[in-house]
Amino acid sequence: MRNLKLILTTLSSLSFRKILKLLGLILPHPLFSLLGLYATLRSFALAQKHFPKSHSNNGVGNAFRHALWTCLIMMYCCKISSPKKAQNYCKRMTDLHEELFPNKPLEKKMDLHNNQVGMDYFMELLPGIHRQFFETSFFVEEFLNKTKSARLLKNLDDDFDGNLVYLTP
């Protein structure tokens, strides 16, 4: 309930132009949008459970949350559509999030990188598991492990392919 209140408060801060951009994502894909919202709430709750102090700042908990978020969006959307459509929607949704709620360049790079790590991991698992049988636990354990080897992002040129990245210890 607290996370839903946070989302509603955040949405109320958007300008009219940003609301139109958000509607441009939601209206053509209402089911994906509901599933994306559910994935957002689940990823917040799980990040809060595992990383109560770092999921809302730029620490490893935030990296975990972003990677998990994209996997959950793709998992839920794949249950009603193709993996490619789910991936396209996930990318649009998560990129739009960065546009609607802009960060400093290094924070944006971190978020986009961790989002991509999550999408890549989902696509890596896809050939071995029928998309209807994916479960949240598949991703939580993997990303908890990945936080142990997460890398500190120091500048925009850093490239830590496949690793989660964070800005503050």
From TrEMBL:
The residue ranges crossing the membrane are 20-39
Which keywords fit this entry according to its UniProt record? Membrane, Transmembrane, Transmembrane helix
One Pfam family, short name? DUF6973
Keyword Transmembrane, does the record have it? Answer: yes
* Transmembrane helix found in the keyword field: yes
Residues covered by the DUF6973 domain: 24-150
InterPro entries in the record? DUF6973 (IPR054246)
Q: Which domain of life is it from?
A: Bacteria
Q: What is this protein called?
A: DUF6973 domain-containing protein
